[in-house]
Amino acid sequence: MRPLPDLLGRLGIGAKLGLLLAAFAILATGLTGYYSYSQSRNLLVNAAERELLTATQVLGRRLVVALAGVADDVRLLAQAPATRRVVQGDRNGGARDDLAETFSALLRVHPEYFQVRLIGAAHHGREVVRVDRDDGRLVRLDGPLLQEKGYYPYVFHTLELTPGQVYLSPIVINHEQGAHAGLNKPSLQVATPVAGADGQVWGVAVVNIDVNGLFDLLKADLPEDFWLYLTNERGDFLMHPEADLTFGFDRGRRVLVQDTYPAVQDLLDHKAKTVVTRGEQSVGPVPADAVAAFMRLPIGVPSEGRFVILGLSQPIQTVLAESRLLGQTTWQLVLAFSLLAVAVAALVSRAVLRPLNMLVAAAQRFSREHVMGELPLARRDEFGTLARSFGEMQTQIGAHLAELYESRSRLDHLARHDPLTGLPNRRFFTDRLEHAVATARRKGGTLAVLFIDLDCFKEINDSLGHGVGDEVLRETARLLCASVRETDTVARLGGEEFVILFDTVADPRDVALVAEKLLQRFQLPLQVADRSLVVQASMGISRYPEDGADAASLLHSADIAMYRAKHQGRNTYRFHDTPAWPAGEVPVAAPPAVE
Amino acid sequence: MPLPHLICRPAARGFRLIQLGLAVLGLALFSTWAAAQGRETLRILAWPGYADADLVRAFEKRHDVRVEVTLVESDDALWSRLRANRGGDFDVLAANTAELRRIIDDGLVQPLDLANIPNTRQQLPRFRDLASLPGVVRRGQVYAIPYTYSEMGLIYDRKQVPEPPATVGALWDPRFQGRVLAYNGSSHNFSLAAQSLGSKTPFRIPEADFRKVVDRLVALRRNVRTFYTSPEEAVELFRDNRIALMFANYGTQQLAMLKKAGLDVGYAIPREGALAWLDCWAVSRGAHNPRLAEAWINYTLEEPVSSALTARQGLANTLREPSHLPPGAGLVWLEPVEDAGRRAALWRRIIAGDTPERF
């Protein structure tokens, strides 16, 4: 596996720049998106918490009002003259019947009332008038069926109150045998003292409330997913959507609100009046995160400091339903901006890369072909400056190179030509000859070499000076060049020796004709340094393939033929090996005519 | 190596690693979940203070089980709960020897294997002699192990009652009318009433005497402020209602709680002898895992656990002799009553407030 830095190192600068830009842009949009999402989520949760608390307080208010309504009913009963007469021991059965009728009427109006009673302080709290609800009908109990209730807190506590005060019992399961519909049901007793005509407390009026019925009314218009809780002063659930968890203390297994919502402990400890908290709302076996608000609700006589805890919870999912949409939108935006960022990064990296690539291409082309490529010269940024500097550098290098080429070709020319006559020198001629021999050999062609040596040149040099000698040589070169075809090569081998290469000689007589023509030209005086000079020459001819298989032997053969011409009287020409042709067709070289 | 390999291979390996990681994580989560789901549960039916949360947690940790404690506050509640599902709702329970007898009679518990409860060797000799304890051994098989005991004496407010009450009759004393606290339980109250009527066999009330005892209990009802069930409730009622005298169903446990609440209380053993209970652990017939239930019993007999019972609840344990009982104090160990069902039915009517003429 190739390490990451290595892989990164292989990336081009454009890709790196693009990656960096894209990563930065994606990070920025992602962070912004996340931050705004979590902020709005928090706002939503906070708003939900406030709403929940408000809803709890409204419910609490409603509970207080409902209980106040019950208290008013109980007070009304307690203050009715009939009640006061009966409690003082009015033995008139009619008055008790009337009172029972009143109680029945009250029970009919309030389906959430289990039982309405008048209990006397005398006879150990013996009931005086009692009407119970039983299976949808009302039952009046009388005579021996009336029970003694003096040891129940709702009797002995209420008897200690002043008329007008109302006692609210703890909410418990009613186990009083004979309580009819209310037996073994969650109940709340609301009681108030009944004063007689003398102002003394003679008994208590008690209403037993069906707690479930009361709370059904209370939560009637709560949304489905709102859960309502009620606990007593110790935190035992009295009301919970899971009915199994209520009144646990009655079954020996307490279920406490502070175990589910530890923050509620502050309410129980009087450290706070309301709390908003998070906890687990157990819906079946699956726990769901919930927001919950709880409030302490004082009930009963203020001096006793009694209270219940009322609470509402709502699954966090519901609260966050809106934020889910928000989250979706946020992430879509983040995605869109990230894509945009990637596109922009790609564009930027291309924009940076293009002039760079142009520079690279220009540099490569320049080094390969020494030709200037296209450069972003018009740009006004750093790339433009770089391109312009690069262009200047290219121009300078180009000029230097041209100069170098020129001097090199001059040197080359010098090395292959005779400086005096401008004719190819021996080396160049040898090259040409070798090349021609090779071609002739391959094609089965023929060629001839004419060796020319000026006669008596030393004497001209010695008598008339080197300047004249040089002039003679130059004139000779001109003469030779003018006498041959363009394809033939005239060269100066050195001193007064010249040589001519005849490429493609179809007939040796053609060479002989040229030699003849040259001999005649040499008979004419040359105009050198304002004087006429006759300069004659001896010439030797060698032919390929007859007189040599290579350049050296051909030249050598021509040289030998030239010497033969010199020895045989000068101012003439000789073949190295005289070709056979019909006599008389070619004029025999005339003897030299020395001026 | 061709380039594509260089790029693709690590990515593929990384992906496979992620897959593997996810699989391992999933497996771990699942096994945790499964363990949580599958964790065994020990269901205890006991009295307040017998299974404190911290001691329960230590046991849960040691045996990697979940413990579910159900508290009872009266023998009637214990009996009805145990019987509700033929003992199938609980694994281990605490009941006094008198109750145990009818529980064994009813086949609600099963014999114990003492080899699984080695801590019984730490108990005082009189609790190790199981045959001498009533209602523990049946047909040579041990059904219960003693755990704690207490006499049910009288607690009084030293300020209101200068002299310690000498007799159970004090509960009926009209001087304390409205300042007496009694216990809401049928069996003991009948025994108590019988004792106050001079019976030497309070657990066997003759048919002829029943009416008198009921009247006596109605009289008690008329003399009390109210009835309590839990020891905590008793403390609140005692404090809030200027109680002078209380029948201490939870014995010294309540005395300790009242003193802790700052009340100036005394404790008296009446002349007739205080009813006394000996609570034992027994394993329900319907126990899911009798070995685990026996492990719980063994655990409660460990020195620190038994000592905690004494230190926190003021209840005597079976490992050390208690210090509070005066020498010669008369104890009347609870025995099975003649007809617990009848006592309970009558008591429900008495506590509901029926007048004597209704019986």
> Which spans of chain B have pLDDT < 50 for at least 5 consecutive residues?
1-18
What would the average pLDDT of chain A be, to the nearest integer? Answer: 86
Put simply, the count of helices of chain A is 17
Q: How many beta-strand segments of chain B?
A: 15
Q: How many β-strand stretches of chain A?
A: 19
The number of helical elements of chain B comes to: 12
Biggest sheet features of chain A: 7 strands, antiparallel
Structural descriptors:
heterodimer, A: alpha+beta, 3 domains, five-stranded antiparallel beta sheet, 17 helices, 21% strand, B: 359 residues, alpha/beta, D-Maltodextrin-Binding Protein, domain 2, five-stranded mixed beta sheet, 12 helices, globular, disordered N terminus
Textual characterization of the structure:
The complex is a heterodimer of chains A (595) and B (359). With 595 residues, chain A is an alpha+beta fold. Chain A has three domains: 51-319, PAS domain (Beta-Lactamase); 354-415; 420-575, Alpha-Beta Plaits (2-Layer Sandwich). Chain A is 49% helix and 21% strand. Chain A has helices at 4-10, 13-79, 81-87, 93-109, 122-125, 153-159, 211-218, 257-260, 265-268, 316-319, 321-369, 382-416, 426-443, 457-464, 466-483, 508-523, 551-567, and strands at residues 113-120, 127-134, 137-141, 167-168, 172-173, 186-195, 201-210, 227-231, 237-239, 274-283, 286-298, 307-315, 447-454, 489-494, 497-503, 526-528, 531-533, 537-544, 573-575. The two termini of chain A are 99 Å apart. By secondary structure, chain B is of the alpha/beta class. Chain B folds into two domains: 41-149 and 277-323, 3-Layer(aba) Sandwich (D-Maltodextrin-Binding Protein, domain 2), CATH 3.40.190; 151-275 and 334-358, D-Maltodextrin-Binding Protein, domain 2, CATH 3.40.190. Helix content of chain B is 42%, strand content 19%. Chain B contains twelve helices and 15 strands. The radius of gyration of chain B is 26 Å and the shape is globular. Mean pLDDT of chain B is 86; it is low at 1-18. Classes of the chains: A alpha+beta (595), B alpha/beta (359). The interface between A and B is medium-sized, with 26 and 28 residues.
